[in-house]
Amino acid sequence: MLDHPEEYYSHYYHYYSRRLAPKVDVRVVILVSVCAISVFQFFSWWNSYNKAISYLATVPKYRIQAMEIAKQQGLLRKAKEKGRNKKSKEEIRDEEENIIKNIIKSKIDIKGGYQKPQFRDLLLFQILLAPFHLCSYIVWYCRWIYNFNIKGKEYGEEERLYIIRKSMKMSKSQFDSLEDHQKETFLKRELWIKENYEVYKQEQEEELKKRLANDPRWKRYRRWMKNEGPGRLMFVDD
């Protein structure tokens, strides 16, 4: 200290910063963070799922079907009889609405971003199952190479749809949300073959251009881009 008095305060700081630092295990911090993110994911997905059910309950096609099923099962009649003397009309209406939503939940399989949340899709479970998924992928990839690249087997329906999905650069949830008749069209047109997919892609681009050409909003946007342009600065002389 006598030789280097200018380093006194730096040593003083380093000593107490280490001594008074909170003794928290990094692993605990990571685990709590992952659990918090997983809880947020679950409630966010559940909220999206409930919004999708509420929307489907307003679509006449699904609402009428749900009401017919409820009438056949006598659920609407039971709700009215149960609340005839005890509940107000608004409460009975809410109960009937819940019955319709529950029927839609049980009869309709929602896929994609609004599907019913599953625990296995949460971050915590994805991390825990990561070694299993990695091993499964390695086994699947080796089988693919052996069966189709080495032995030259013909693709099955599942493999064809997989190649089509990869060509379209869609995630599994996005591809699963497509209608069955769309997937059948893909298979009929043999889109797992690269040349056929390129033709299909060109057709879709041409169709999109035609739709945009007839869209009044797109016409207004193009007219604005032509006349005004993005971020154009105008200087006016005084």
From TrEMBL:
InterPro entries linked to this entry: DNAJC25-like
Main localisation: membrane
Superkingdom per UniProt: Eukaryota
Record bears the keyword Chaperone: yes
Cell compartments where the protein resides: Membrane
One GO CC annotation: endoplasmic reticulum membrane
Transmembrane domains' residue ranges: 28-46, 123-142
Protein name as catalogued: DnaJ heat shock protein family (Hsp40) member C25
Native organism: Phocoena sinus (Vaquita)
